[in-house]
Request: fold
Amino acid sequence: MKTLLAALCTGLLIGVTASIGSSQDDPIPPGPVPCQLDWIIYDWDFQLGDCGFTPLDGAGSAVWEYGATGLIPDAPALVWGTVLEGTYPSNSGHSLISPAFTVSEETTLAEVVHYYDLQGTSAGCNMKVNGAILPPYSGYDGEIGSNCTQVGGESGFTGFGGWRTDCFELSSFWNQAITLQFDFGSDASTSSCPGWYLAAVRIGGVAPTLKEETTWTRIKSLFY
Reply:
């Protein structure tokens, strides 16, 4: 059997206090569903570095930054975030791209540890694979406001979600080379909310369930 190796790392979480506005009065989003991975092939823990993720210019103002933030509670030492020490700007529209990898039996799931606090539907974010919107197992919160740059009218995370871990199914891209694209956008309104922050992204899989014994195996068991 092929050996599956995972570089698993842990780090100290640093508690901080949010110093800007929050949208915690917004409707409660769907509950997150983690992948419960049996193995991890790519462990992109941003406490250890930027992991080769790259900001990509979009249709609006750039927001993705890598480093430390004091804006959100219980943030790891280092994260990718939409402006680390301030609120996201009006008319933002920016993407963050992962390193490329090929989807195989070992890499069918993507688990994302993230935090979001957005001003209602006047801002939103989602994950795309090769340009296609990919929903998490729990589904997105709803439709992002139509006036938002880059993600307007798309399904995505909106409002307040806090820290959560979501799982995304990649098997529909079997044997394809893909990248994960984290898109963020806002409209022309002024926000007092921090935005979207990524602590880790893990690519891996789960062991298949055991198949039922064959009829012949059951028959032989009657005589031995």
